Amino acid sequence: MRRTRMNEIIAEIRRHDEFVVIAHVHPDGDALGSAVAMYLMLKNMGKKAFVCIEGNFPKKMEIVTQYCGDFIEPSESVFPCAIALDCGDTTRLGAASPLFYAAETRIVIDHHHTNTGYGDFNLVRSYSATGLILFELMGRMGYDIDAKTANCLYVAISTDTGNFSYEATDEATLACAAKLRKAGADIPLICEVMYKNRSYPETKLTGVAIDRIELFGNGRIALTYVLQSDYDALGAVKEDCDDLINYAREIDGVEVAVFLRQIDGGKFKLSLRSRSCVDVSRIAAGFHGGGHIRAAGGTMEGTLKDCSACIVKAVMEEINK
Amino acid sequence: MRRTRMNEIIAEIRRHDEFVVIAHVHPDGDALGSAVAMYLMLKNMGKKAFVCIEGNFPKKMEIVTQYCGDFIEPSESVFPCAIALDCGDTTRLGAASPLFYAAETRIVIDHHHTNTGYGDFNLVRSYSATGLILFELMGRMGYDIDAKTANCLYVAISTDTGNFSYEATDEATLACAAKLRKAGADIPLICEVMYKNRSYPETKLTGVAIDRIELFGNGRIALTYVLQSDYDALGAVKEDCDDLINYAREIDGVEVAVFLRQIDGGKFKLSLRSRSCVDVSRIAAGFHGGGHIRAAGGTMEGTLKDCSACIVKAVMEEINK
Predict the structure, then answer these.
(1) What interface predicted TM-score (ipTM) does this complex get?
(2) Annotated domain spans of chain A
(3) Tens of pLDDT, residues B252-280
(4) For residue range A269-282, what is the model confidence (pLDDT) as tens digits?
(5) Is A265 exposed, middle or buried (0-12, 13-18, 19+ CB in 10 A)?
(6) Which of A12, A112, A238, B109 could form a disulfide bond with A88, CB atoms 3.0-4.6 angstroms apart?
């Protein structure tokens, strides 16, 4: 891979007048925040800019998408310059991929250390968030970060650090947050919208899932589940269960949390989380899945009762290794 | 009130050899974090130091109390110097009050703007946390903040800013967090212990309370409750309901959340939270209580059904004003 110095990227951004900004499919806060921050900088520099991202945008992300009036659909258009943000490889470009490849100059800015370097210019740094790379880039360019851009970058770095709780929350990340606050980032509003807001159905589904938590293995394993019928009964949507597993994982003494989500009558999506010593990706590998040491997933078939017994047994074996 | 410059406080700390450090009764993270941070600095300076705080220490605070081997019970002892931290007035000193008054030199360090200035030396600044004042003080003293002190100060400022989500989360707070991270603050561990850990009974009580949430006033009011019998049934303790009201408040569209906790057969403790436009302290005033604009409380008597209907009516009236 050809890695690029920041100054080369800056020269390319200065050289072009029209851009398409791309972020990864089904964007999270780092993807959308970075894309809209880049868009705002380009517009403030008097350039033409458009943003193209495949997938649904979470409603809470209106806090940044509201600043962008130029989202476009994937097409065969040719832009002088394409900038891919927060996309570790080309599959992450999704339907925006043709726009990226058609561009005369292709820039990649990303924080995933696995980035494959698929651009003409690749600015890849293992920072806590792509938004943090943009913050540094904007500083070098002498771009005076306004309140809108500050909000976008704050959403980006806050998202990818679990609102400043993950290991990656380093000095540079917090120092960046401080400067974004000074530049006008509305931290209380961002936290309220992003972390302190749930739909009524999601709240109710949370209650149901908590009610069903069972402990196994002397309290080291917590298991809960959600059935297809729950969605209809509560008016919930699929995404409403995304955070449920945390209530199981965060029980004092629990090392591994298991969450089963029914995807059809006899099939379950399996999610696993661990706290400190169990590698759940090894467990997930036994269930057509995989993932990371602390977060992994797979699929299971059978009745709820059989699947529960089977996964608890597998977790116990891994704990006792 | 006689307010004191930081340099005078520094001179007093340098001048004395033995200290009692006091923080407010039933200490939170800012009180305990600040007290133990001060203790560590004094010990590292080769001085004698003891910490006296009335009340129960939350178990999660072991993350800072573990660093202090010199907690003492309230007594009539006379120390050359007493330092009261995070106590806005003398009632907050609780049972440690005689120790404070008996001391030859009495120092107050606090961030509450209502501080009454009851010390011989009063360092009162409206910072986001008392821990932030200590951070500045330690910088001025040339104290090289070690990892233990960094953890204490991080817990202090994280607690009082809602882990960097409240309005008070200013540039200085985040810049301080960045420097504490550099000094060795174990942010992932602190967040895990303080914000991502609940007992099994607390988790179950959360499920019960969520299950009971009812919406009123076109979804602008959410009400839930916990009965005395729930505690026995779940093995829960009183404090396990402290955060429950947030699940009601954080429902999309809810402006006012109401939580009723049964304290004896026909008596309920009332808690109120609002999001953005309703002053709940005005509502609480009608129920033998008071508080802040966004958080207030009171008491009610009657059946659950009557109390619920009565408080919903009162909230509706305030909303419609």
Answers:
(1) 0.94
(2) 6-195, 200-319
(3) 999 999 999 999 889 999 999 999 999 99
(4) 999 999 999 999 99
(5) exposed
(6) A112
